[in-house]
Specification:
378 residues, alpha/beta, Rossmann fold, Helicase, Ruva Protein, domain 3, Arc Repressor Mutant, subunit A, five-stranded parallel sheet, two-stranded antiparallel sheet, 12% strand, globular
Length: 378
């Protein structure tokens, strides 16, 4: 039986929940020639939305679509490797002529390609050590995209990583190529909001005002409840609407965490079962037990001030006015300045995030399962 609550892979159209307005906006924006900054908290469904966008007929039938997640990268050399591998793997199913056009464009790496001894077709078997001139190779990659046989859309996930590369002026380098391109549109995606805001909203930064911006918020609660109830029914099970609401609100509508609980409910609870809140609590407890050792290790890496602040934020779930006298007194914290310093470090480590409510920032843990584990243990 197919589990409708996908935790990995590409979600089929049948089990893709909502995002109709966002999909329509992204399609129209890209087709009309603008680049996009797509930001969201982690685990809100950003990557799945990009893949869903690529499956829209207007995009799928007219564009080469590329997606790469550069979160693991820490240098321009690695960025070149990730971009090149994605282009190559996407073009392989398109046929030999499409692939050959790309491989012939990347002259700086021509000696690193391998060939299948049976079919004779080339493959992009490039290692980091093969990239001797990353600035030249990235120039060739952008030249290929500009001259590809079809218009291109390239989604680069966790784009904020480039801000931490040791090479100087990587942002300016990329911007200098991208602003001249007519054949390729870019989706710059990411979850580190405070870094992305600096990159795209600061007049001193190269990417200032260079993309239309979309913040991916929660799927509306009633929409998600209707989807979940229908998915359970089609899977031969039942779930109470109030049970879906209970999970949705616990995780503040973050799609991945709600999906994870409901995925396990389908997987581990038998057909004919009506899932209630007691069941979801047990499923959550099992997940927290499984992840507990990892979270304990992460907490052990924090100093005492950081630990105090992250526990206080977890207890609140949505922490407001964290430097106020009331917040500091409630959680027995040291001082506003010590809280500010700890928050800056936790943001840098991406253990916490924030959303803007008017002029105020509301803080929460990036990993909502870790949040519930802290509430349980501390």
């Amino acid at each position: 039986m197919e589990n409708p609550f996908y935790l990995s892979g590409i979600i089929p159209e049948r089990w893709f929940c909502d995002r109709e307005k966002e999909t329509e906006w992204l399609t129209k924006t890209l087709v009309n020639g603008a680049n996009v900054l797509l930001s969201s908290p982690r685990r809100m469904g950003k990557t799945q939305l990009i893949y869903h966008l690529f499956q829209q007929p207007e995009i799928r039938d007219n564009y080469y679509c590329f997606y790469t997640d550069i979160f693991p990268t820490s240098s321009l050399q690695e960025l070149v490797l990730f971009l090149g591998k994605e282009i190559c793997s996407t073009l392989v199913p398109k046929g030999k002529s499409a692939l050959d056009k790309f491989l012939s464009a990347i002259r700086s790496l021509s000696g690193s390609f391998t060939y299948d001894p049976v079919s004779g077709s080339p493959s992009f078997d490039v290692k980091l050590g093969d990239i001797h001139s990353p600035m030249l190779t990235i120039e060739e990659i952008f030249a290929y995209l500009e001259g590809a046989g079809k218009p291109c859309i390239f989604a680069i996930d966790e784009f904020q990583q480039i801000a931490a590369y040791p090479e100087k002026n990587v942002e300016a380098l990329l911007r200098s190529y991208i602003q001249k391109m007519n054949n390729c549109r870019f989706v710059f995606a990411g979850s580190n909001r405070h870094v992305l805001e600096r990159m795209f909203n600061s007049a001193a930064k190269p990417f200032y005002n260079s993309a239309q911006q979309l913040y991916l918020d929660r799927i509306p609660e009633e929409t998600y409840i209707a989807f979940a109830v229908k998915a359970f029914r089609e899977s031969g099970r039942n779930i109470l609407p109030e049970s879906v609401s209970y999970i949705y609100r616990m995780f503040d509508g973050h799609t991945y965490y709600v999906h994870n609980i409901l995925h396990n409910a389908i997987a581990y609870l038998g057909p004919g079962k009506t899932v209630d809140s007691a069941d979801t609590d047990r499923l959550l407890s099992d997940i927290l037990d499984e992840k507990g050792q990892t979270y304990a290790g992460m907490m052990n890496q924090l100093n005492y001030q950081q630990k105090e602040v992250i526990v206080a934020i977890a207890r609140e779930r949505k922490a407001k006015a964290i430097t106020s006298v009331a917040f500091i007194k409630k959680h027995s914290l040291k001082s506003p300045s010590s809280v500010q310093y700890a928050v800056a470090q936790l943001l840098e480590q991406q253990l916490i995030t924030y959303e803007n409510e008017g002029r105020n920032k509301v803080f929460s843990l990036t990993d909502r399962f870790m949040q519930e584990w802290i509430r349980k243990v501390y």
